[in-house]
Task: structure prediction
Amino acid sequence: MYGRKRYQLVKDFASGEKGHLKPFNSKLFDETIEECDQNHHLIQSLIRKMEQEGLDVHSNRNADHCGALVHHLSLIRNKRCLMAYVHNRADIDRDLAWRVGLELLDLPPEIQDKLTTLEKEYFKNHSVAIKSYMGKVGIELNVDMVPPKDPCIKIRAVGEIDQGIVISDKTTNFTRHSMHFLKRTDAEPYIARVTSFTCCPSPKTNKLIRPL
Amino acid sequence: MRHLNTVWAKTTITLRPNKSPQVWRRIPTRLFLFAARFSLTASETETFQRDYQQREREETDLMASNSDMGSADFESLSSTSDVELLKRAWRNEKAAPEILPYEGALVERAKGQIELVEENIEDYVKNGIDPLVVSLYQMDLDRTQFLLRSYLRVRLLKIEKFMFHILKSEEAESRLSEQEKVFARRCAEDLAKHFEESVLLKLPENYQSVLKQSL
Result:
């Protein structure tokens, strides 16, 4: 009865792979909120009924009071599940910001589709906070995610990429199946984008670089 | 973690910064690996080895002349060099489940030394010193930079994870640096705003608080 929808919402979130987003389930979300409203109306009506009968709300434990308690607890549970859903998605958003890039447009379009406008706002605000911290400390924290092993890496471009990408001092054309010998610091953002990309499977890929 | 340790064991390099008197690091012991990787010829490895041994002798002489120390003291001195301290702080921060006190002075010193080494490397490149040597210095610089960045990053991730708790507890807040406190407050505001807009404003009145279940 009460709670089926929030249970489905939480299950929906948990059924996705860990660390990956599913599209925001607005239908279930809105239904859960409606249920909260219903619960609240029922609580208010029950309390009014108790007050009309002249009984003190807190001390008398009659049927109405128990009913109001059940609605109250159900509402609290709903709130908790909704907040957990939003909170976990926000965790994944923050993780994306660190792994892929701080600009919203750096995210592949498949991921952008799965975020709501509110989540995109949150993503933007959070990356602004990170950028301002990095500016104050004077060190870029977004690079060097893995311990550096070699100064130069050999990479092969497996897919098609826009032409004419500027990398440090020369322009490189990442045509399909071309091998390049780049500095590690230059190649890293592209590799990061790809590893996050392949984690969210999609039928079309237009940017694939694999480090050899 | 283990991989990183062995990489470090193989590849610390001596630096002789002209300006800062305090930084000494361990002398490398596995230069052959580098020689193999960069495929030097036998004569080149010999000259390199001779250079390195001579440099080692010079340095121990310099160390001995600076202060009368035996080799045991040299060990203890190099173990408290800034890189070692940074390594220790980084390891502690990575392993600890909650945020540890901020090593402000260490971070400042590390930043200063990194800039110093960058300038040195530019000078070397201009003077046309052997590119192998330059690339070794560059790699060492990269590794130190990674340590510093990773240290700050781990702290930021912990703040993001526990932001409400840190802002509530005085003791935890005292372990942050000034900029981290600003960051924590902004993070918490952003997240609270996100919660309010997505969930809380749609709920009935008494249930709209971020931190309490209901009033």
